[in-house]
């Protein structure tokens, strides 16, 4: 995201101050953490967590073992590399495809409205693909440790190796993910084409009004809200920004907008967007509650434990499960890719 602060966790929140004030960073980080009862504030490598070192059991770790043992294989294709074969092996439907063109990935320089990043997901795994990119990006849920991140090099001349990549935590371990390794879907608001402009937006879940969602994403479907930020350029001239934002184009598919021939489908399904927006925050809430409970049951010697953190995490989870504060749906939302039927 151009100009955006992509720092992770506390360092991301107070990084500028830390640069200016040097040693004050530690004190400020502690103060900020103490003010976050809605997020996990301990280290991901707390003795009760051991995120970096504890064995994991994810869809990807199981596939990796099967590849190493010769029980599974992936096929490299000219269009998409390992993508289609990986999706099939992880039981991820291509109908879940979502297309994002805001520059919000580690492969941001390749992402444009003519070359959007594609995301695919099921209940426990998500895969990101950029046409022309050097890697596939994968996030998989472990029941104990939360979301584990992997990459797969897009090379036809090499054996496919699924590598764990904690570098993804730069963007996927922040206050927006509740202080745990997690998922986010971001709606990027229109911004100036000035090279010094900063991006802004909102992390989307089912509580965000629909007219604030989907900035930087393509949205396709048979019935979609009349107002949202999708399907329109994020970066605009000052003259364009001075005028009211036009209504988004209503798209059945992305056919004709760019060369979509290498993508598995020509859709960025509205129904899939609704599910992903709910699922991402739900995943983070579940991880946070598990981590808070484990820290409470294995306290750090000499440190007072706060049982209210577990109670608060449980309350937040239940409220979200019951769709408390869900944004109203102004009209029926219906996709066009077949995702709803697959789901």
3D structure, described in words:
This protein has 343 residues and is of the alpha+beta class. It has a domain at 59-273. Helices cover 28% and strands 12% of the residues. The chain contains nine helices and ten strands. Strands 1-2-3-4-5-6 form a six-stranded antiparallel beta sheet. β5 (146-153) and β6 (162-164) form a beta hairpin. α1 packs antiparallel against α2 (24-34) and α7 runs antiparallel to α8 (308-321). The longest helix has 28 residues, at 270-297. The chain is globular, with a radius of gyration of 21 Å.
Summary tags:
two-stranded antiparallel sheet; disordered N terminus; about 350 residues; six-stranded antiparallel β-sheet; about 30% helix; alpha+beta; 9 helices
How is this structure best summarized?
This protein is an alpha+beta fold and 343 residues long. 28% of the residues lie in helices and 12% in strands.
Number of helices: 9
* Share of residues in helices: 25-40%
Mean pLDDT: 88
As a percent range, the share of strand residues is: 5-15%
Shape field: globular
Number of strands: 10
Rg of Cα set: 21 Å
Largest sheet, in brief, is: 6 strands, antiparallel
Q: Strand arrangement, largest sheet?
A: 1-2-3-4-5-6
Task: Give the topology.
Blueprint: H1 9-21, H2 24-34, H3 59-69, H4 83-89, E1 98-100, E2 117-121, E3 125-129, E4 135-142, E5 146-153, E6 162-164, H5 169-172, E7 186-188, E8 191-192, E9 201-203, E10 235-236, H6 238-242, H7 270-297, H8 308-321, H9 339-342
Parallel strand pairs: 8-10
Antiparallel strand pairs: 1-2, 2-3, 3-4, 4-5, 5-6, 7-9
């Amino acid at each position: 995201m151009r100009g955006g602060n992509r720092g992770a966790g506390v360092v991301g929140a107070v990084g500028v101050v830390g640069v200016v004030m040097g040693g004050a960073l530690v004190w400020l980080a502690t103060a900020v953490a103490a003010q976050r009862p809605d997020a996990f504030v301990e280290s991901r490598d707390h003795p009760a967590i051991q995120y970096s070192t504890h064995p994991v059991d994810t869809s990807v770790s199981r596939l990796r073992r099967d590849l190493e043992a010769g029980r599974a294989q992936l096929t490299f294709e000219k269009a998409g590399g390992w993508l289609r074969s990986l999706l099939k092996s992880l039981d991820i439907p291509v109908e879940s495809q979502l297309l994002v063109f805001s520059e919000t990935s580690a492969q941001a320089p390749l992402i444009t409205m003519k070359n959007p990043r594609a995301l695919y997901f099921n209940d426990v795994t998500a895969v990101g693909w950029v046409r022309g990119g050097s890697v596939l990006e994968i996030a998989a849920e472990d029941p104990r440790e939360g979301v584990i991140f992997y990459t797969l090099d897009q090379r036809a001349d090499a054996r496919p190796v699924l590598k764990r990549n904690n570098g993804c935590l730069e963007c996927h371990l922040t206050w927006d993910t509740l202080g745990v390794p997690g998922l986010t879907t971001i709606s990027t608001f229109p911004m100036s084409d000035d090279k010094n402009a900063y991006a802004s937006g909102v992390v989307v879940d089912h509580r965000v009004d629909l007219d604030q969602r989907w900035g930087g994403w393509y949205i396709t479907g048979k019935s979609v809200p009349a107002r949202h930020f999708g399907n329109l350029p994020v970066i605009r001239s000052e003259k364009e920004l001075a005028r009211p934002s036009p209504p988004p184009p209503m798209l059945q598919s992305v056919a004709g907008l760019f060369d979509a021939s290498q993508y598995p489908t020509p859709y960025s399904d509205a129904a899939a967007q609704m599910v992903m927006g709910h699922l991402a925050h739900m995943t983070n809430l579940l991880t946070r509650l598990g981590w808070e409970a484990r820290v409470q049951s294995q306290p750090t010697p000499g440190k007072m434990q706060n049982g209210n953190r577990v109670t608060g995490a449980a309350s937040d989870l239940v409220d979200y499960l019951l769709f408390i504060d869900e944004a109203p749906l102004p009209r029926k939302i219906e996709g066009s890719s077949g995702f709803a039927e697959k789901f």
